[in-house]
Design goal:
The complex is a heterotrimer of chains A (277), B (333) and C (525).
Chain A (H helix, E strand, L loop, with lengths): L1 H7 L2 H23 L31 H37 L1 H16 L2 H12 L3 H12 L1 H15 L2 H8 L4 H37 L10 H9 L7 H28 L1 H7 L1
Chain B lengths: L2 H36 L4 H8 L5 H10 L6 H13 L5 E2 L4 E2 H36 L4 H14 L3 H15 L17 H39 L2 H8 L4 H23 L1 H15 L4 H10 L3 H29 L9
Antiparallel strand pairs in B: 1-2
Chain C lengths: L2 H10 L19 E6 L14 H10 L4 E3 L5 E3 L2 E6 L5 E6 L13 H15 L1 H7 L2 E8 L2 E6 L20 H4 L19 E7 L3 E6 L13 E6 L3 H9 L5 E2 L6 H8 L4 E4 L9 E6 L9 H10 L2 H8 L4 E3 L22 H10 L11 E7 L4 H15 L3 E7 L2 H9 L5 E6 L5 H4 L1 H4 L19 H12 L3 H18 L2 E7 L3 E4 L2 E2 L16 E2 L1
Parallel strand pairs in C: 1-10, 15-16, 15-17
Antiparallel strand pairs in C: 2-3, 4-5, 5-7, 6-7, 8-9, 9-10, 11-19, 12-19, 13-17, 13-18, 14-18, 20-21
Amino acid sequence: METVRAFLRHPSGMIGLVLLLVVVVVAIIAPMVFPVSPWEMVGAPFTPPGEDGLWLGGDTLGRDVAAGVAYGARVSLLIGIASALAAMAIGVVIGAISGYFGGKVDLVLMRMTELFQTIPAFVLAILLVATFNPSLLTIILTIGAVSWPPLARLTRAEFLRLRHREFVEAALCQGERTWRIVLGHILPNAISPILVVTSLTVATAILLESALSFMGLGDPNLMSWGFMIGAGRTVIRNAWWMSVFPGLAILLTVLAINLFGEGLSDVLNPRVSRRRS
Amino acid sequence: MTPLGSAAAIGLQAISRIAQLVAVILVIATFNFVLVRAAPGDPAQVMAGQSGASDPKLLDDLRKEYGLDKPYFVQLVSHLGRVVRLDLGYSYRQRRPVVDLILERLPATLLLTVTAFCLALVIGTALGALAGLAAGSVLDTVFTVLSLVLYATPVFWLGLMLVLVFSVTLGWLPPFGYETINVQLSPIEHALDIMKHMIMPVTSLAAIYLAIYARLMRSSIIEVAQQDFIKTARAKGLSGTRIVVGHMLRNALVPVVTVAGMQAGALVGGAVVIETVFAWPGLGRLTFEALLQRDYPVLLGIFLILSIVVIALNLLTDLVYRLIDPRMTTGAA
Amino acid sequence: MNRREFTKAMLACGAAIPFGITRAAGQTRGGTLNTIIQPEPPVLVTALNQQQPTLTLGGKIYEGLLKYGADLKPMPGMAQSWEISPDGLTYTFKLFPGITFHDGKPMTSEDVVFSCMKLLVETHPRARQNFSRVASAEAPDPLTVVFKLKQPFAPFIGCFDCTSAPIVPKHIYDGTDYRKNPKNDKAIGTGPFKLKEWVRGSHVHLVRHDGYYLKDQPYLDEIVYRVIPDAASRALALENGTVQLVQWSDVEFYDVQRFKAQKNLEFTTKGYEYFAPHQWLEMNNRIAPMNDKRFRQAVMHLIDREAFSKRVYFGNAKVATGPISSKTRFYDPNVKRYEFSVDKAKALLDDMGLKPGANGKRAEIKYIVPPYGESYQRAGEFFRQSFARVGIDLVLVGTDMAGWAEKVGNWDYEMTQNLLYQLGDPALGVARTYISSNIKKGILFSNTQGYSNPEVDKLFDEAAITLDAARRQELYSKVQQILVEDVPVAWTLEIEYPIIYDKAFKNIVTTGIGSHETFGSVYKS
């Protein structure tokens, strides 16, 4: 309760939360406001904004850009959250093993994490999605596969910090099983910074997904913001609105998540927050 | 530590870094190998498909040429052997060795990324330092909001918006490409022409990193300002400028350079998208073309080469690190 | 054959007078034509690679024995005249005297025989088909080539243009590994232009071949093909005059309208008659529900092809009525017409028992998007919306080129889109898609959908060996009626690629091969 009140007093965090709620509401009510599929060609090609009842204009095929932006919110949030969770799963497992067992295991895992952190993640993502063909699942798994290193490092640090605390030592003495110690004692105490970083990972995942779709590596059955901007790139002389509005949508969503996540971080763990600057 | 000892330490470290580089190349090459094998479809089929025709004879030839009939381990070893000899395979779509294609495009990418990197680092730290020194002022607030917005902007979209404003609407800058084609120019005019084409791609690529470095620098400066040695310096009566330049900036830069080095990979990834937006004839556009045609040998080669570039940039930041913070003897803390 | 007979034969072929070429008095020598090549071709030797950019560029370097007009009738190329024996088995070509390769060596009938019978059958799939019909090819004297066919084949005379049978130098290729010949980089042909310089990723510079056999030709001094991979940059280059000619898909369809209005530019859709790109929605006839004729007919009804042309191709396409393009020979407009009607489509689907289920859906079908660029992507999206109107879910599946080729070639698909050239004669470019003898697993551009109809087979077979044009028309009309009723594939559009060029240039489009032509007669006024 105290943290909620603290968050309510956090101005930028609240701005983020409100913006985020707007995006979520848009995603939820999209089918009610736009009962027709965003793929349906409802107007003339290249209809300027405001004409023919298309507030944000029409695209090359005469599809409603506004409907696309609204439905795109669903895709972005879905992929953003799902792939951040995937990244969290990978990162927590690797970080936990590394931090709990230490020694050679730690060394090998951390070398691997460093490697993943230095190689160009976006190029790796392109390679993975192109090889396994773009679909919702491959995109989520790929983004997860290139976004986990910060989470692994964080989890490892938390585990190192908690590993030798009294309550862990006590559990060890009582002969509790390793997995029970990890899941029952260490993880619950490490979870809040992990959640904060995961929430920020949602933002980078959305950016990554939009870049992939922009490059033509989105799921062809999903209307996403990156896809819309990609389709608008070549026709930017004819129809600026095709790329401007979806881009604004990405900007607002990512900004909202970042503000929200940082606010959360300030309230939950001032320690991590300071370190992360 | 004696100068000799320190030189030996640096030499040792250089050797260990190079060993690390070789290890990384081998790991990535192995990963590439696994990826091609894990991908759906027979690699020979894929290569034959890329050659535009597929008949049994071609498939057999390809299997022999690439040793696909041999055990996996033997294949992996010969693959690594080829990589070490800089043989990254053959692009059947372009009918040229992959390494030629990549080396041809590498300079343009380096020009773009290195320029953007330097600009972002210099301007970002300068702005961040200014904001940090004037923490709480209007300038600081404006600046914080701006960097937050930039941080949330997709790089490719920023590029497109620049095109929309400066090329489509105002007509000031060339929207795409590396140089004006089909005109005779003196070397100086040519250089100016390339610079004009560089403005927008470099700006869009540098913007987000500028924001990141500036934010880091700002908080770093604020943190350093509260530390004891600065207070001591003030107590000793050193002038404000000397404190800022000699002590604060130098110390505040350390975390910025660390992060800059770590983000070299992201910068190169951003270059791939930016080159697509601006039709910049570097590796990014090669990636895009290879992507459209699913030219896997080229994609894998680009991945390997870019990884090497990133690691080289990491080494570079290590050197910079040493320059600004002589106390550091080992790169890894 | 005596001289009189020979002259008569020449006249009969209409061979002596090249037509379609402006014979203006003031044809000036000199000038540079800047144009675009995209994507950059892997090689320039058209005998080794037949992708469109290779053919466009290589067409200036390599010449064929014949050219074909917009009506697809043969015109002299390197052969000044030709004769077909009445039984349709013997083809005799007389070459122009004084033809030389770019390395200075003379081109003789020996080179023609070598090219057609030895090299092309190895390296050129289309030529392999054509010249496999030849029983013997001889070079009785340096200027005469005689082909004897195993059996009559009416379109054989249509197999000699620079894209189907480019002539290469025997002295360079004979006895070598053709694909790895080091001289491939030099690209030595007999065309009016020769390769001066190829800067990869930048441009290909062609200059006048001074030893060209036609008097005064070529008129231009040089042609520069610029490599401009980005569509927006290409459009800009045409707009500001950096390039003076664009062809095929150099400028995107949505930009074409803009250039039509630009005063200094000439716009035409002529020059593609030989290819007549014909596009369709391909349905695997082996799988339900596509194995039911009524389903395929419903597909014809449910796609608004006028709107399809307008939205996806920005009007640069004409609605196709059946298997043969209206741009080519033996087209018959008198076939069953499938107007856009969702109701008729629904009725046909109901009739075959494919009724909507509880969720309102009739079926779910996977559609493989061909990986050839944005318009294919848009087309898939258009089809998906069209099918949705009758309750059929079209699920788009993205893939790479190898994947597409493997899936379609091996019949492992439900629906996709395809585009084939008609190649001047239904026996060459149309029959291959529908005859059951061409159901060949693993081979692209064959009868991949698996349509089989003995009557259609018989008609196509007979038409191929019939020499009388009127009789052929009869047979092809019949075939068109049957196919349009059966709908083996859902024909959508005849794509009309533009050629846009600076008005200062004349004779850009003189034949049905358009921008692939040699450009020897192109001049700048």
